[in-house]
Design brief:
255 residues; mainly alpha; 14 helices
């Protein structure tokens, strides 16, 4: 639960007896407000608040105080360790979550993200594929599987997964990792080529503005195969746009 949700919960704890008469001044109102009992937050709620504040150690302490533990709390503890880059410990808690609930796609995906971070791309592909069998319409997991295939230099399979992800969620590649229950991978060692494939994916989907945006990023990061923007059929609809022509003539400073 995020801060806004917790604040909303606090705001709803109103004793009807306190509002039968209008407040005569702000001091009286403040005194009554302070006298109202505040609801006790559960350990999980406190953990969620700490996660939202990026206080991952405190979040772990709160989550570990939950009795009994469940697949959900194991997964949340794993994410907190993941954010701290303690991958082995994160993997241990994701595995506990999966053991507690074998058909829990979020934890399976997150274990795949650990393998990806450890450059064990084959195992990452395996975990993402397993998660997709349980939740085939998850754009984020299709995106993750595409990135794992990309890391293995299987660009054709990566492209297929990116196209599926974009069809399921037109904003999937614009999301940033949050402190939810499912992690979305964004790191890759081939940034220029990665952005070329995103440009190609957006161009095929008819999202011209974003295609041009990622085309520029690819060029800025040193993508040298400019002829692909002219030869690949996905870019055909963009070739008459002034912005497209301008990008092909630019020699941007490589970032």
């Amino acid at each position: 639960m995020g801060n806004a949700a917790v604040l909303s919960l606090l705001a709803l704890q109103v004793n009807p007896a306190d509002v039968t008469q209008p407040f005569t001044d702000t001091k009286t109102a403040a005194a009554v407000e302070q006298s109202r009992p505040k609801p006790d937050l559960s350990a999980e709620m406190r953990g969620d608040i700490a996660m939202a504040r990026k206080d991952y150690r405190q979040a772990i302490d709160h989550y570990k105080g939950i009795v009994p533990q469940s697949h959900i709390t194991y997964n949340k503890i794993g994410i907190a360790y993941h954010q701290l880059m303690e991958m082995d410990t994160a993997a241990k808690y994701y595995q506990r979550a999966i053991k507690a609930k074998r058909d829990y796609p979020e934890a399976i995906n997150n274990l795949g993200a650990v393998y990806y971070a450890q450059k064990s791309y084959r195992r990452a592909v395996s975990m993402y594929s397993r998660a997709l069998k349980l939740t085939p319409n998850s754009a984020s997991i299709h995106s993750n599987l595409g990135t794992a295939w990309f890391a293995r230099k299987n660009y054709e399979k990566a492209s297929v997964e990116y196209q599926t992800a974009l069809r399921l969620d037109p904003d999937v590649f614009e999301h940033r990792n949050s402190n939810g229950v499912l992690l979305q991978e964004r790191s890759t060692g081939e940034r220029a080529r990665f952005h070329y494939y995103l440009a190609k994916t957006y161009a095929k989907a008819g999202a011209h503005d974003r295609a041009l945006q990622y085309m520029r990023k690819a060029l800025e990061e040193g993508f040298k195969e400019r002829k692909k923007f002219v030869e690949e059929p996905e870019f055909a609809a963009l070739q008459q746009l002034p912005e497209f022509k301008e990008l092909l003539t630019l020699n941007p400073r490589v970032l």
